[in-house]
Amino acid sequence: MSKRRLSALLAAVAVATAVPVLTTATEASAASCSSYPSWQAGRSYVTGDIVRYTDGKAYIAEHDNPGYDPIISTWFWEPYACDNGPTNPSGGFVVSETQFNQMFPNRNSFYTYSGLKAALSAYPGFATTGSDTVKKQEAAAFLANVNHETGGLVHVVEQNTANYPHYCDWSQWYGCPAGQAAYYGRGPIQLSWNFNYKAAGDALGIDLLGNPWLVQNDAAVAWKTALWYWNTQNGPGTMTPHNAMVNGAGFGQTIRSINGSLECDGRNPAQVQSRVDAYQRFVGILGTSAGGNLYC
């Protein structure tokens, strides 16, 4: 975790944005769900598996589980709109698995596409807002920044272990229940500090303050923390990265919101260029334009 996480994430100390109400798949017909296998109690499922329940509706596994009941264990399952995927009624996630693999040819096996898909339900507006071009631009912008933060989705945890004890702010009333050195950077946007684990966990309905290791052990949780930052945090910027993309501010403002205090306004042009290069490559893979205002 670089020093910029301190400046970028201190701005989010008091933020714990509520998760939007999830759109369920109650309207999905039994016929449209018939292609999925029937759920079986006691059968092991992995993140991303889709099953047809006894009511004829489909559910997608958000976490590996040994066959828990989808309508009881909502931590492990959520409704799935059979025709269109879990979050986008206009046609599913704008990045296919083939495109995802093309973007990240050397990715760590932890960062699964199915984990990303399972995480999308936490923020239904992500990559589903605006025109098809805007949707693709937002997905590309998110993944380009993630690419830079993790070295191409290679690093799951912060590499400098000497930093680990530094991310505990004992002045917070809840302290560091998982231990002094438990809140190091993890996941696609390298979530760090006890107060950020607390805020992200509160927003997502997951006890990340007490169990920060979930972010490095559960792919869906890891992706959700990155989407939490993207959709709810301004960091050192003036807007969330999500709002920057859907309101036309441009890719440069996403950089500012993630690491502007150390990279923008000429401070580190090489790092900015690295992010821009990835973004331009990714919009090319998705078959759309990059738009304007690429730099910060």
Automatic annotation (TrEMBL):
Keywords: Disulfide bond, Plant defense, Signal. Disulfide bonds join 168-176, 264-296. Residues 1-30 form the signal peptide. GO terms for molecular function: carbohydrate binding; chitinase activity. It comes from Streptomyces antibioticus. It comes from the Bacteria. GO terms for cellular component: extracellular region. Residues 36-80 form the Chitin-binding type-3 domain. This is Chitinase. The active site is at residue 149. The keyword Signal applies.
